[in-house]
Design goal:
With 527 residues, the protein is of the alpha/beta class. The protein has helices spanning 7-21, 23-42, 58-72, 89-97, 116-119, 143-154, 176-186, 224-228, 230-233, 244-247, 259-265, 291-304, 316-322, 351-362, 372-379, 381-387, 398-405, 412-423, 458-471, 476-496, 507-512, 514-525, and strands at residues 2-4, 49-54, 76-81, 101-104, 158-162, 190-193, 215-219, 236-239, 254-256, 280-284, 308-312, 327-329, 340-343, 367-369, 392-394, 426-429, 433-437, 443-447. It has a nine-stranded mixed sheet with strand order 12-11-10-13-14-15-16-17-18, with helices on both faces. A seven-stranded parallel sheet has the order 4-3-2-5-6-7-8, with helices on both faces. It has a two-stranded antiparallel sheet with strand order 1-9. Mean pLDDT is 92; it is low at 107-142.
């Protein structure tokens, strides 16, 4: 498990660290790590063409210092300064000292081409012919400068995104979008410093043009963006420059589980166990209209643990046909004792569905409530009152979340955390980055490596898995987090098949791949 820290937390820790080591030393440590990972990404350094997109502030400074290191190792490095009057002075001096080239799109001064910033400094390795560009009367770069920058980007082997850092807000501003689009159009990979520019550090949200990185090199610790917007970050490499002790007294904003964490916590039978001691879960799902929901949820519960599964509902015959191990009955009042219930998929939201939910609540055992059960909670305030403070997991997608807790908005962690506190239960907000929030404020984020779980019936599978883990005795937050990770791994395994390129796979294939995913996480937990 690793923590995710917000921009405010990181800035506070860095300020404390700089009182010990100094800001330039901190930046040079970060830049050395960035240069290392760029070299590793390229596979070779000598003769490779590296373009730095440099904005104002420390993020641009990281890129400039890294560029100086890459230049010393034989790369052809050009920094495109998007705001040269605010470029990091020490980083720019280091690049020039290493004879890196500089193209200033916004040179300071009243006119294009005037003053030393426009002409460059041949002795320091900048190119006077490319250090033009100037300003138009409106403050936008002249066409010639943009053309030169675009040509550099399109001809590069890699572009380093040093446009904005963790303090950035909102979309990319001109002229950055045009240059980022040029790289994308030419297939030139972008390596992001700390996070892809234009993507919010704390929420992973975008609001216009932004960078989609092939690799992100982050400094000191991981941030929420790396989990919430994983497809925009690409693989994330952490440069550990000693920030940890300065974060020591700060609770992470949220956490990410590893395969090993889940494998170590997943319940497996011991020498003294039997089917009852490992947990008996009840599944109340499906209907004449949606019998598949019952089959998917109940079967997933059977595959998740070695305990026992009871099923109650009108789809009992279908469940027995597919899963002879499951004890099925037509009515929840006829079901035997359980240690947990999973209720909701395909259940219906009429009087019968409501009666089933109330009966499950009467059992006073941990619950996983999904789909129609969430809609019933949204419709009936007294049902919401009954779950408050109880060991309950709600598993809404964005639409269901809106019914019971309001619109999600751009801050998924904040929304899930508020809902968990208000409802007094654990809330699992589904998405490519699934967020699991406990009433006490703890948050897990599972950044799925792909989107193969986005298929009909996928949520039914997840509900059954969570129910089985609740019956086995896991805390609701852990049950939801562990099941989410294995669910995503099962979706990937189902899509990949026998090692061939992945293809869409239905929820039934995902269900069948649960043992494959469990073997993988248990292997990850092995000494």
């Amino acid at each position: 498990m690793h923590g995710l820290h917000t921009a405010d937390q990181v800035r506070a820790a860095e300020a404390a660290m700089m009182r010990t080591v100094g800001d330039e030393m901190l930046m040079r440590r970060a830049a050395a790590g960035l240069a290392h990972h760029v070299r590793e990404f390229l596979g070779a350094t000598y003769g490779r063409r590296v373009v730095l997109l440099v904005g104002a502030g420390d993020n641009g400074g990281d890129a400039l210092w890294a560029g100086a290191e890459l230049r010393r190792r034989g790369a052809h490095v050009t920094a495109v300064l998007l705001a040269p009057d605010r470029a990091h002075p020490a980083g720019l001096a280091a690049l020039r000292a290493a004879r890196g080239r500089v193209l200033a799109l916004h040179p300071p001064g009243p006119a294009a081409g005037s003053g030393p910033a426009a002409g460059g400094d041949p002795a320091s390795g900048s190119d006077p012919g490319r250090s033009t560009g100037g300003r138009t009367g409106t403050g936008t770069p002249a066409a010639g400068g943009l053309d030169a920058a675009r040509a550099l980007v399109v001809g590069a082997d890699v572009v380093v995104d040093g446009i904005v850092g963790i303090s950035g807000r909102g979309a990319l501003r001109d002229p950055a979008p045009e240059l980022v689009a040029a790289a994308d159009g030419a297939g030139v990979p972008i390596v992001a410093c700390d996070l892809p520019s234009g993507v919010d550090c704390d929420t992973g949200a975008t609001d216009g043009p932004h960078v989609r990185a092939a690799l992100t090199v982050t400094f000191g610790c991981r941030k929420p963006v790396h989990a919430l917007a994983a497809p925009l970050c690409g693989p994330v490499r952490l440069v550990d420059f000693g920030l940890g002790p300065f974060l020591g007294g700060t609770e992470p904003h949220s956490r990410v589980l590893s395969d090993g964490d889940v494998g170590a916590r997943w319940p497996v039978p011991g020498p003294d166990d039997d089917k009852y001691s490992q947990g008996v879960v009840g599944i109340a799902a499906g209907s004449a209209t949606y019998p598949g929901a019952a089959v998917l949820a109940a079967g997933a519960a059977a595959l998740a643990t070695s305990g026992m599964v009871r099923f109650a509902g009108s789809a009992a015959d279908e469940v027995r046909r597919h899963w002879p191990e499951i004890v099925a009955t037509g009515d929840i009042t006829d079901a035997g004792r359980t240690q947990a219930w999973a209720v909701g998929p395909g259940l219906g939201t009429g009087g019968q569905g409501r009666a089933v939910l109330e009966e499950a609540l009467d059992r006073e055992v941990p619950l996983c409530l999904d789909a129609d059960a969430i809609t019933l909670l949204a419709q009936h305030a007294h049902l919401r009152m009954r779950i408050h403070g109880e060991p309950v997991v709600l598993t809404p997608h964005a639409g269901e979340f809106a019914r019971i807790a309001g619109e999600v908005g751009p801050d998924r962690i904040g929304a899930a955390r508020r809902a968990a506190a208000d409802l007094g239960v654990t809330v699992l907000l589904k998405g490519n980055a699934t967020v699991v929030a406990a009433p006490d404020g703890r948050v897990l984020v599972d950044p799925a490596a792909d989107s193969w779980a986005a298929t009909a019936g996928s949520g039914d599978v997840l509900t059954g898995m969570i129910g089985a883990l609740l019956a086995a005795g896991l805390d609701p937050w852990w049950a939801a987090g562990c099941a989410t990770l294995v669910h995503a791994r099962a979706a990937t395994a189902a899509a990949r098949g026998h090692g061939l390129p992945p293809v869409p796979a239905p929820a039934s294939a995902m269900q069948a791949a649960i043992p494959v995913a469990l073997r993988a996480v248990r292997a990850a937990a092995s000494p």
